[in-house]
User: What shape does this take?
Amino acid sequence: MRTDTTEKGLEAHITQHLCLVNAFEERHFSNYNRVDCVDEDLLFNFLQATQEKEVLKLQSIHGSNFRSKVLYRLNNQIKTFGIIEVLRKGITDNNIKLKLFFDKPVSNLNEKDLALYNQNIFSVTRQVHYSTQNENSLDLVVFINGLPIITFELKNELTKQTVKDAIKQYKTNRDPREELFRLGRCMVHFAVDSEQIWMATHLKGENTYFLPFNKGYNNGAGNPPNPNGIKTDYLWKDILTKDRLTNIIQNYVQLFEEETEKILPDGKVKKERVKKLIFPRYHQIDAVDKLLSNAKENGAGKRYLIQHSAGSGKSNSISWLAHQLVGLFDKNNENTVFDTVIVI
Assistant: This one.
């Protein structure tokens, strides 16, 4: 059988794994509502299946305008607070609370919460036509309950294009004024080829800042050889699983404001508040998860050494670890491992 070496082949390969192994649904791009940035049918199927009473109440209030009213409220909340806050806390319409995502319970013994978690709909769509101005399309978009959370531009070295071309495509051909690319609408944007992965959380044209999402190799950049396939397949095999994405949403991604100083043309300094979105890099997820797993298995009292290079996010790694250690249960899911966490 001839191997498809184009980016379409990589696109198909990733999609196949997500659907056959990770139990995602594959959706056609025609299902995507590019005005409201949502796979509308999936969203309302999820709400109907998990919150029927709330849906019936809102239908009685809004009548035939039910869908448009809910979408208006949803988009208003995403624009104000970002997708992560909406997934974590839901939305309220006419004093009726709607959950947009159900967290994974700490213990499988919580059967009701586990059943709700399992009703979350993870899906992937190829060639998503995202724009209201033209027919430009993204190679892949991952959705949760119809809401887009991750976009992808894919390249393949065998066709003489690399991850650098994917980065350039995001910078030059993806208008940051499009609603899907506005800060906080998605968690992250991935540029991917078969050798490397880079990521950005805020598209700003040529000023877009990409960070590596690679494992590292021989104490340097890049990824190690993979005897079982593509070097970058850890992205769809290890990161894009339902449990891992849920954990990232619950414990890692942050949209926040910070105060910065801007030097004006006259030399004066102006203070302004700027929103930032942080998505963890691969080594941060890997280090924190390994520490949590070991502490869960072996309990308190062990010592660990984590080596980080300068500028690689030590403070965030410490914060994410400390936050999750507080609620870490032992291997029997009966008692917390730590009573107190002190950071020095």
